[in-house]
Amino acid sequence: MKPAAVDYVRPADLAAACSLLAEAGDAAMPVSGGQSLIPMMSLRLTGFETLVDISRIAALKRTETDATHVVIGAATTHAAIEDGAIPDPSHGLMARIAGRIAYRAVRNLGTIGGSVALADPAADWPCCLLALGADILLAGPDGARTLPADGFFLGPYETARAPAEIITGFRIPRLAEGARWGTSKVARKSGAFSDSLAVAILLPDGGGRIALTGTSSHPRLLPAAGAALAARDSAALRATVKAELAALGEDADPYRARCHLATVTRAAEEAWSA
Amino acid sequence: MSADADTQGWVGVRLLRKEDRRHLLGASTFTADVRVPGLLEVAFVRSQFAHGRLGAVAKPDGARVFSAEDFPHLKPIDGGPELPSFRAAPYHAFARDKVHFVGQIVAACLAPTRAQAEDLADQVGVEVDALPAVVDTVEALAPGAAILHDGFPDNAFIHATVTEGDIAAVAAAAPVALRRTFRMNRQATVSLEGRGVLAYWDHRLDELVVTLSTQGAHVMRIGLAMALGLPEHKLHLIAPDVGGGFGGKNRLMPEEVAVCALALKTGRPVRWIEDRREHLMASVHCREHHYDITLYATREGRLLGLKGEVHIDAGAYSLWPSGPFMEASMAARNLPGPYQMQALHVETHTVATSKAPMGPYRGVARPGACFAIERAVDELAHAIGMEPAEVRRINLVGPHQMPYRTIGGMQLDSGDYPQALERVREMVDLAALRRRQQAGEDDGRRIGVGFAVYTEQSGHGAAEWTKRKSRIVPGYESATARMLPDGTLLLLVGIQNHGQGLETSLAQIAAQELSLDPHAISVRYGDTALTPFGFGTFASRSIVFSGGAVARATRALADKARRIGAHLLQADVADTRLADGAVHGPNGKVSLAEIARAANVRQEFLPAGMPPLLDETATYEPEESGGFFSYGAHAAVVAVDPETGVTTTLDYAIAEDCGTMINPMIVDGQIIGGVAQGIGTALYEEIPYDADGQPLATTFGDYMVPCAPELPALRIHHLVTPAHGTEYGVKGMGEGGAIAPPAAIANAVSDALRDFGARIWETPLTPRRVSDAVAAACGDRSEDAV
Amino acid sequence: MTAITLTLNGDRVREEVEPRDILADLLRDRLRLTGTHLGCEHGACGACTVTLDGLPVRSCIVLAVMCDGRTVETIEGTRADATMDVIRRHFHEQHALQCGFCTPGMLIAARDIIARHTRPDEATVRRELSGQVCRCTGYMGIVAAIRAAAAELHPAPGADLRTPDLSTS
Known about the structure:
By secondary structure, chain A is of the alpha+beta class. Chain A has 3 domains: 7-53, Uridine Diphospho-n-acetylenolpyruvylglucosamine Reductase, domain 2, CATH 3.30.43.10; 58-173, Uridine Diphospho-n-acetylenolpyruvylglucosamine Reductase, domain 3; 180-273, 2-Layer Sandwich (Enolase-like, domain 1), CATH 3.30.390.
């Protein structure tokens, strides 16, 4: 279980990294924490020829804050978020999510940007960022662009990121004062990928957002369920979620559908009780 | 370490382990840590097909790539019982003609690094003409099923019946007959250190030196010599530190043969270190039993008899030496458990499927049998409206009945089984739990409690192994006790410590006999050139057999030391005693160091005619070789989420009796570790196969090994009934912890979900299985589950 | 091949590596630091845990080339670490190891848990140990050892300070 031979470059900055990726196309792969990529290399499940090490690019580690948003760099590790080492727009939600990803030694290297770029359908961050209404910041050979998280995830391991683009960070709106959140996860054991993960956010103006992962395709917002959050009625919420899952075709696996019902309900209940 | 030792001796003392220091410093030596110059690493090319005819193997030009055609003289390594009804299929280290499971070795690639060897493996082309996979254990015997092995009339290695008493009469008269099916799914043994082999020809010694991770180097030498066609004195096997085994390192495997053959063929040192994917795909697999049993009983809960059919999924081949048949016979004979009943009739089928071959794993067969009988007892209790613990109590063999031969033919020797059950019932406070269940939980989860009682045959010798028709009969152990000139002691033993603390426990026994400090004793094992012959460590046998051999050898050494001491003290031997590391006489004492000096290097001080040296070798087998039964009762308390099926173990209590404990700390460690593995079987660990025979859990991403958050703090109560007929009254106990948890946990989950009528019949109880069971029971009412 | 330099257990080390070389293989096979064990090679068992710039990481899923210029500490590098000696002694006293294969990674994780949580309760220790697989002990001794070591290393105000016994036998 050892990786196949590969070339390695460590570009000095973002522009160099993007042009390397643009030249190489599918043959190049950016790596930062490598905590998902390197195991796949060892299992010889990857096909690229060149690793582009972006782990030391300073631009990916910046954090910026203003009155309404926090920007965190893509190379921010799960552990840094877990420990509150960077500004938190989420009243603790992101620290809670981070602390349940894989294992601590993995969180010390694994990055939020890598998780979003891989877009494993059971991953935690895509779901959380959807719920928070975050934007995804990208840099490419043609410059920078910003995409909302909603719409960024297209399928299992498939996103709107172009092959030569690098996720540079996330622009996350600060949760309003008085906003409440809850989250719930079902997994076969601690640290395992989730069968279902829900994040619920109840805004003080009565609005709400619910995001769900562990789905058959990619993490999703459940708009109807989110709208039902303010009513604080578990039974009504369950009915809404059930209908919404059916509409999305996410009820094909009855077990997963039960898990989704449970995690959404519990996330909502935690938000209500917070 | 222990202030008690001076007055009470070393047996029974919580002595901290001698083997810890090297591990804590990161200075231990496992097989993969051994390196010799010029080493070549092996990557195996393995079959990607579950079943098929093997065509050409295309090898890259000029590379060191080898397959069956390169080793025409290697002998197959299949094993099995010496029974004419047992069908053998030849198991070649490199597949010939056909492949029979995904992961079977087709070719070996050698290169200076493992990565380079894997590069070569990627270039090897293997032609396979695929045939239908044989996957389902029971359907494999159905008419029309594809036949795995050419020449087999059906897919069974053997069919056999275990019968005692008049089951027809019992069935005809029994007021209650309860039929249930149960399944315990397939697992791997998952020692944290995988297997590994390093082999090279040592020209000075003119022998093949083989370093390997095994539970028994001496027995493996027999198998390797047979496969390679080498005389045994040309094979020197060394098992250094071994990172767990649990049964999985106690069979001769093709990789071991292949690596030796590659070293002989290339003249280079060659090693293979198993990776985790290989371990999960192609190392020893285990469990996978299917039970269809009918329990006969009275309406008052008295058990009358058991009839049933057991299918054991043995995988594609029968591993040397014992093969998979032991699994079936032990499952059948242990099905009555510790209960009294009048008749037993079990048809067993040891089935060949296109999966990795089955071998032993901690508990061997008994976790499945215990799961089946204990689940059935709970189902019976529910059917007749009794408390399950009460049904157990009235059927358990009582202390006044000992020794008691069960209807399965197990000779239970001693102990108080009902007492163990009563203890765990108190420990979890059954009455309070029943009240809590009635009150319900605030969070919607359901609480359940489950019990299981088990027995653990240990220290069984020739009588038992010959009854099993084993081609190796591990009926004794041997030990050499050698006192060095300064009075320190070398113990050479044939067992293989691989985590059990035997360096410490055996030193305690020697220290007890010689009144030496354990720190003055070194224990050596795992080297065929160094230690007397022994069978290794498995089957809960080492403390009984090797402990006994150490006691005998050191006792003989002590006798001789006393005779020398008496001579030096000019006293009569009868007036001397050994204490505090010295021989004491009426007029003084002489230290063992002085005695050892005389015996080794100053023979003029020896009694006339006494041969020099303090060097004694002894073998040991208990007179009664049917085994000594440790036993215990486990109680599990779980909380189950009926919607998601997530189960949490809230409390786990154990009352057990393994006779005299040489080192209670080590005993507790074995129990806790065993239960952790048992909970793994109950809730987490599984290697499913798809319909094409592809294994679906080949990394730890899919194969769930329980970690600290998954496991509860256990509570242990010891009953101590010293065994009659072993040294110090010990019984083996290494496996017991793993036997009862699947039954206790499954009973607890079933108890928790009783209101729904969910059918809990199959391990592991994954969230999906439990959630599906609740949904299936509720049908359209599944919303009620919440 | 690429030249890298590491500060390894306090020493400057210069090695030529292939980009695909895994840090654990460099440590074990080239630098002969075999206390770092490989139990899964895909980051799921924790036996290979070392520290990289002071943080525990899985050396089986780290590329050596990416460690250029960084500081690595393996279990061998902790032999003179007084904190680790306290943890080792409690592992010994609490029977926190059996076969010993998981032990080096477990110790590195344990030291980090104590550093971050000071005096962790049982649930915290268990949660933090997720992903450190021990197949032998059932974790009870490990959890007890970490808690006992934490209590000794971070005594509650007014508690007796024990002098660490640096021996591990």
